[in-house]
Amino acid sequence: MPKINVTVNGRPVEIEQGATILDAAKLAQVKVPTLCHIEGLEPTGSCRICSVEVEGRRTLVPSCAEPATDGMEIKTNTPRVLTARRQMLQLLLANHPDDCLYCMRAGDCDLQQLAQDAGIRERAWRRGEHRSHPVDRSSPSVVRDPEKCILCGKCVRVCDEIQGVSAIDHAGRGFDSYVLPAFDDELASTVCVNCGQCVAICPTGALVERSDLSRVWRYLADESLVTVVQTAPAVRAALGLVYGFSGKDAEERMATALKQMGFDHVFDTQYSADLTIMEEGSELLKRIQDGGPLPLITSCSPGWIKFAEHFYPEYLDNLSTCKSPQQMLGAMAKTYWAEKMDIPPESIRVVSVMPCTAKKFEAERPEMETSGGRDVDAVITTRELIRAFAEMGLDFDTVEPGEFDNFLGSSTGAGAIFGATGGVAEAALRTVFNLLTGENPGPEDFSAVRGSDGVKEIELTLPDGSTVRGAVTHGLGNARRLMDQVAAGEKEYAFVEIMACPGGCVGGGGQPYGADTRRTAELAGELYKIDEERVIRFSHENPEVQRAYEEYLEEPLSHKSHEILHTHYRGRKKYTSEDDDRS
Q: Which is the catalytic residue, given 50, 152, 300, 356?
């Protein structure tokens, strides 16, 4: 690609032809504020916050959408630029409620931060206080407040262009413009899959996760209850990044911090990830050997499951019947563990800490009940846990390393990598390889499923010389393209791993704000580091999982394990609420 030369605030920069002014500013280490810009997508220049001055131009130009040209002289901080930026912020604030102090993104609201940086302390203009659209709390995962929306369009673009769901879009004109679901329906009655990618990218708190923290505090305060908490692999990686720790150190400090929060028992979702592998790996082999529906498609991502129910109901029989690791641990806690500890299941409350907003929806599914009640009683995101630690006054730096409780707390390296795209496939193939050959594979055998490519393929050679082909994808837009190829007969696989969120669970909609491709790759790296540090790296070698089968579950795919660890799914309408007859 040819190079061109520009100057940014007098600093010379060499950049590839076709790059934008914003790209040039980043290379010059000059920070230009943005609100509507999404890295990797075609720019729209709708918010104009990133406008800059270009020598020879009469008007300011949006740096995110304007290509740089050879010899261009760019200025990002002239009085004209700063005045225009303040005016644009004031116009956005005029259409925004004065509740940044107590919204769920307080302290991490992009609009709030830009206003503070620009020295804006009060609104210059004010729209009438009449609320045209009420807060939508219908979803178990996402709360939507249209009054906080500044029409930057980021949520619409992520939902459509990255996730391929298109549950929300722009509606109305002028002052009556809003971002809404079709027909102004409640979010819960749409094709929204609860992935939370809109929440992760919204700069103003118009979209936030539904918080279950108050319910968790009530559980912890009730002395008649036995409180159990489980944590997903991606949570510890994110906490490590937020608090400045890595790998095993962050994991062990998290275990102690959760006990200090007041939980009676701290279990590890990585244990049930190992359990999932035992069931799912056996399910794959059974389908291959007995002629079951192929490809076997993973079922641990609830956003993907709901997406499949809406858009690919003809493939529901292809989904693994295994519950997700979250639901498996909840079910085991209220059956196997409850019996071992002689605790009535109705006295146990299982709380999950997840990187995923869709896990809140999954926990409330009627299919997810084993012991006469929900497998999981409440789900909080990584962000909610960080807020809980702050509310407690907990200093993560001073927390002593600790351990997860036994029975449901022991895990392997295979369980740790579940949080990264390709991790489920790799963990499953490690065990399938052992089941077929009696030996464990080397670390290089499944390197093809690692990395951030949208679709990755792998071939496994069986003892009889035949091969089994598999695919891995992440982000529902990629999943749609792959499934369309499978449906058209263009691709043929024995198994497919699909994660709803870009990068896998590490890029989940409940992770700390500010995720990007670089950071999700860094978080995935932390999980692979935990895997490398584990003494046991294969799910079938987890001694606590082996004991669960010996004492309770009998064997993978037994009648007992099917009762507790497996489930089913149902088709849903593609575009409208299931209670109406619109088509």
A: 300
